[in-house]
Amino acid sequence: MSNNRAPIDRFFSVIPAGGIGSRLWPLSRASAPKFLHDLTGSGQTLLQDTWDRLVPIAGKDRILVVTGKVHKSAVLEQIEDLSTDNLVLELSPKDSTAAIALAAAILMKREPDVIIGSFAADHVITEDVAFQAAVHEAVAVAATGKIVTIGIAPTEPSVGFGYIKVGESLDVARAPSAKHVVNFVEKPNMANARLYVQSGEYLWNAGMFIAPASLLLQQVEKSEPALYESLMKIADAWDTDDRKVVLEKTWPSLKKIAIDYSVAEPAAEAGLVAVVPATFSWHDVGDFAAIAELQSQGRRDNLAVLGNARVLADSSSGILVSDTDRLIALIGVEDIIVVDTPDALLVTTKEHAQRVKSLVDVLKATGHSDIL
Amino acid sequence: MSNNRAPIDRFFSVIPAGGIGSRLWPLSRASAPKFLHDLTGSGQTLLQDTWDRLVPIAGKDRILVVTGKVHKSAVLEQIEDLSTDNLVLELSPKDSTAAIALAAAILMKREPDVIIGSFAADHVITEDVAFQAAVHEAVAVAATGKIVTIGIAPTEPSVGFGYIKVGESLDVARAPSAKHVVNFVEKPNMANARLYVQSGEYLWNAGMFIAPASLLLQQVEKSEPALYESLMKIADAWDTDDRKVVLEKTWPSLKKIAIDYSVAEPAAEAGLVAVVPATFSWHDVGDFAAIAELQSQGRRDNLAVLGNARVLADSSSGILVSDTDRLIALIGVEDIIVVDTPDALLVTTKEHAQRVKSLVDVLKATGHSDIL
Question: For chain B, does the N or the C end have fewer beta carbons within 10 angstroms?
């Protein structure tokens, strides 16, 4: 390997496929989380859509998936082209720093000059070409020694996302739209969200990071030295016979911390972060109301249907998600959310979609873990 | 047998157990209609409640059930004390005149002076003692040569029931509250329903009729002579070896007509009908909204639950009927109706409860008879 490779030839995608998606219960479960489901009606799961979007960038052999070991067979079944060399199985969920930095460390051992790009398995992006163009720009900027994020132009003053304050333009060849990042802002209250959107100076942080693996790991080493040391131990052993032993010994005590805190925020303070504004539309489909919006193309009188249910609807709108073959009849229910699975049924409204998470918390607390 | 028996010793109850209850789909089905379900949370089905209410009047050996032959085993299973001598099985539904007049004719062959009282299997009456007192009064009046109905004091200007215009008091010993019936009025429009209720001169017609079998059959003979002749042929053969042959030959062509038209209205015109005003509360639980009202005791913020579902409800009201063991979660849905059965799910609101029947009509028309 040499540092003289073209930036895009150094690129390797990482798909952290984690998170349960509590707000999408009872469709999304611990055993079958959000990314394993078709939430767009595309006929493919979110993971498959993510994979297909990344393949054209650097090929199907340069995509690594990090997921829980309980999802191994489901992931391998959904992504036929994924080799086990490019599958990192976590023993238990340890948040995004462990997932992404371990992937970075494993890949850096294999290719010291690798530039990684991390893209969640459960987001929806519909314009693939614009996405790929943004990644190309980001890779060009990353090669100059930056951690690069792809920022989303806010479509509303959301309090559900973190924001990126955008600074001056960078001057990088092949990355005309790249800009400095002034700082990251955590999920704001509504008043501040409105100010951010009005100012035009902020983008949503969609958690996409493109950076040389070495640079990303330097940040982890600075902010979380113990975690860094553990992850490097695992990475050292990864492609050896010691993997299992080291993993089982080291994994349980890894610190859980989001990459926003361990890497993005301190790196931004150090002036090391850039952003490429997205020209594609992006959705995190965080709850059923978001899925309904996505499906209905903004038409309020639509009833979106996901799944193969026989549906009979009269004067009804909202979303119906079916994981059974039962007949479902709706009469006169507006903005309704009905999620029908073999062992659990949810009925709520788009207005209350966010409260599904609290319900899952109650189920956890009251010993209903059999249906979580 | 002699006409000198005391009126109450001549009494025999008839329970017409028919009707599908389309407005209660998908709980109520052709194969398991309304009367076979517990719709009150009493732990008994409506049929069992009706049976238990009638037993104290003349004993468990003087109650005859008329039902479809497809319900034979379900009815015998639910009513252990019912002997097959007192079970009349219809080959197909032929409306209330055929059901009640055939029962009257069979019983009259056995006891010429019998007084029958007909009480639907799928109505809800909570004050049994007051009900039994009303029947006793009605039997005393019937013994004077009247067809007697028990009228319900309207609690609202309903357009879902027929009305009885009440006349002068009768002067019958042991029936102090009995009155003449001026006439029956079919289901009115809202304006007329309001007038009826305001006037205080009208009662709801709950379809309860108490009369000497001979008098009731005379009315059928006058108004529907062909139907009368066919029913008498069947009754003549009933307690003989010819029952099956005569039934199969005669049944298919029986005219379908409600007993209101064949008996009640013409008899009222002839001055032959009396009414005993009920002092008990009565519900026909015609749709899920009615069941919700009954269950919630009028409290609008209540969520009524029928069945053994695990339910988790947050800020929800209405009714949830479960015929499965799935967990059902409701969040922020008000006046909702959720009916969960193994092969069909209904979600609607109390406001739209009456529209369930139209939905069943659509299902019929579109070839979904497997779930009707």
Answer: N
CA A14 to chain centre: 10
Are A213 and A164 in contact, with CB atoms under 8 Å apart?
no
Task: Report pTM.
Answer: 0.87
- Tell me the nearest-neighbour CA distance from A349 into chain B, angstroms: 7
In this prediction, residue A293 carries a pLDDT of 85
Closest residue of A to B370, CA-based? A327
Among B81-85, B116-120, B151-155, B309-313, the least confident range: B309-313
Architecture of domain A7-283 in CATH? Alpha-Beta Complex (3.90)
Q: What is the residue extent of each domain of chain A?
A: 7-283, 292-371
Quickly count: other Cβ atoms within 10 Å of residue A25's Cβ: 24
pLDDT at B367 over 90: no
Q: Which of A79, A84, A88 is nearest to A36 (CA)?
A: A79
- Are B178 and B148 in contact by the 8 Å Cβ rule? The answer is yes
Answer for the pair B181, B268: CB distance below 8 angstroms, yes or no: yes
Best probe of the B interface among A27, A303, A345, by most B CBs < 10 A, is A345
Average pLDDT for B22-26: 93
Q: Which two tokens stand for residue B70?
A: 């497809």
Please state, for a pLDDT cut of 70, what percent of chain A lies above it.
98
Residue type, B52: D
Low-confidence ranges of chain A (pLDDT < 50): 1-2
Q: Retrieve residue B164's tokens.
A: 């009885």
Q: What is the pLDDT of residues B124-133, one digit of tens each?
A: 998 999 999 9
Cα A210 to chain center, whole Å? 13
d(CA A98, CA A104) in angstroms, rounded, equals 10
Q: Which backbone phi and psi does A160 adopt, to 5 degrees?
A: -95, -10
Q: How far apart are the first and last CA of chain B?
A: 46
Report the Cα–Cα distance between both ends of chain A, in Å, rounded: 46
Task: Please answer whether residues A88 and A106 qualify as being in contact, where contact means their C-beta atoms are separated by less than 8 angstroms.
Answer: yes
DSSP A12-46: EEEEEE----GGGTTTS-SSS-GGGS--SSSSS-H
Predicted confidence at residue A372, as pLDDT, reads 86
Q: How many residue contacts between A and B have a Cβ separation below 8 Å?
A: 112
pLDDT higher than 80, residue B108: yes
pLDDT (0 to 100) of residue A299: 64
Q: How far is A334 from chain B (nearest CA, A)?
A: 10
Written as one string, the DSSP assignment of A313-326 is EES--EEEEESS--
Inter-chain CB proximity A348 and B340 less than 8 Å: no
Report pLDDT for A298. Answer: 58
In this structure, what are the phi and psi dihedrals at residue A78, rounded to the nearest 5 degrees?
-80, -30
User: Is residue A87 within 8 angstroms of chain B, CB to CB?
Assistant: no
Residue A146's φ and ψ, nearest 5 degrees, are -125, 155
Q: What is the pLDDT of residue B345?
A: 97
Q: Is B322 helix (H, G, I), strand (E, B) or coil?
A: strand
* Secondary-structure breakdown of chain B: helix, strand, coil percentages, each rounded to the nearest 5: 40, 25, 35
CA distances from A217 to A227, A259, A271 (A): 11, 11, 16
Whether residue B18 lies within 8 A of chain A, CB to CB, comes out as no
